[in-house]
């Protein structure tokens, strides 16, 4: 009789252990599945595609065009100086060659500094546009709607430096843009 009870107790403990493991495994599998639902969104694309008609975006666009034109002009000047240097070398005018090399170096340094400053300014304006309360509120609300309706647990910025790889299937940028356009038409 004792062996019978002992055997039943061991079976009961074994079955309870199996059930707990099954429940725990099922729960952790559900949690793991929920955590793996990750998406990325390209906020710069959303701003440029959806908000490009805004005054702020036109200002950024004008600043970008101005920068590109200035860079082109400075490159033309540098190329003209390089051509003059070649002619001075062919004429064996070492003094003029040195003078032109110095002018080229200074113009290249200026161009590099100008490019960095303007790129930083443009990027800053884009970031400010992204963080302006009305724009960001509308974008975040739409990202949240898409994420919740499609079961994503977390959404990263596509250009986040911590993202080493992502599959294009988790990019919800176009879905966010489509939803923003649909809801803008209904207002």
UniProtKB/TrEMBL annotation:
SMART domains: OmpH. One of its GO terms (biological process) is protein stabilization. The keyword Coiled coil applies. Keywords: Coiled coil, Signal. The keyword Coiled coil applies. It comes from the Bacteria. InterPro entries: Chaperone_Skp, Skp_dom_sf. One of its GO terms (cellular component) is cytosol. Residues 60-120 form a coiled coil. GO terms for molecular function: unfolded protein binding. This is Outer membrane chaperone Skp (OmpH).
